């Protein structure tokens, strides 16, 4: 929901890029812990919510439990634990209004680039109005990027032979058309990831039939749509007290599943397969359609609330085909096995297109920053880039857990600089020979296609990225702000320090 008025101020202590979960989290921490700090949120779209405002495909929902995925400062009280997108958007709207954040958001303001001037210790941020095309600039001491890790403009669709021959409709979930009516239609969903397993049960009620076509299977884990313990605790001891307990419980459970997958992958595979077999008709070919070649958590597990996908398959309203595409035809898809899938609509749930920092061009003193050549400091700053913080959530647990830690540490960093009269902080990588590794360690196709363009992780000290919540709590929440890898300076041109 866009604000009724838009201010004209363009100079701030902190500019936050993106009004999704990461940007809202940063705004909350600044507003509550540094109330005198001026900030603005620059959002390229016309509404807040990021992912949850962008995607409109049927059934879109969280793929993490909401007590973990929700903010640490705002209890999740809805009965749904795996929540629909509109419920998540309502929660974000409440968080924005309860904390006076909405008036700080500048909608339709797409950030194109930002240049840091070390002489003045300030960023100049170049923007374009998404509605008028008008260019403008903002200035700030700090920039916080909450842009996520994928391209909001378009998803990934591979080249399919014969695509132009198909006489039906082809859609990608990221550009779901408002006028798409699939009632009574034969639908083929290409893909086996989180989007595909969401679409299958959501479309099966109204479509004539839905087929999930996959080259290879993914692990699918069924979880309760509602958390009985959480709902009971909310009633008995109240949401504020209950939330802390529920959040700890869910973090421990999710981290336990991940660690077990890494330590005993064969056992976890057997348990996952046993659950799938229990939910599908006797004799169903689980080994072909739900038994991946990789170990659990080499790629993200696909979560399905209450086994809804398995219910759709068991009812005959949906099916899974594991095969390779030969060509699109006028009436569907011909597979390499010789089978033909008839379709009125083909949905290409073929993944995301990764994009670091929302595609923003960074430069320091006019010199362009090669993002792929930087190394991440504490998984929240970039080597050689002053006064810049970014949020990159976890791949193996709720994204927002990391956002809360990063934002809190950023506030501590600003406080430290104020106390010491410092205006610039820059992570400096002294060991140029240190081995570098990919920022994300998943084997998923969408990650492998685009990860080379991202900053790298290091292998020692604050340059490591472990995707381990308990480790980040130790170094971001409890660890010191000062670090040998940080260079603090004061500007040569007189300027106010952050207040």
UniProtKB/TrEMBL annotation:
NADP keyword on record: yes
GO molecular function, one term: N,N-dimethylaniline monooxygenase activity
Annotated coiled-coil segments of the chain: none
Keywords annotated in UniProt: FAD, Flavoprotein, Monooxygenase, NADP, Oxidoreductase
Entry cofactors: FAD
Superkingdom, natural source: Bacteria
InterPro entries to which the protein is assigned, alphabetical: FAD-binding_MO, FAD/NAD-bd_sf, Flavin_mOase-like
NADP as UniProt keyword: yes
Pfam families, A to Z: FMO-like, NAD_binding_8
Family: Belongs to the FAD-binding monooxygenase family.
Name of the molecule in the record: Putative monooxygenase
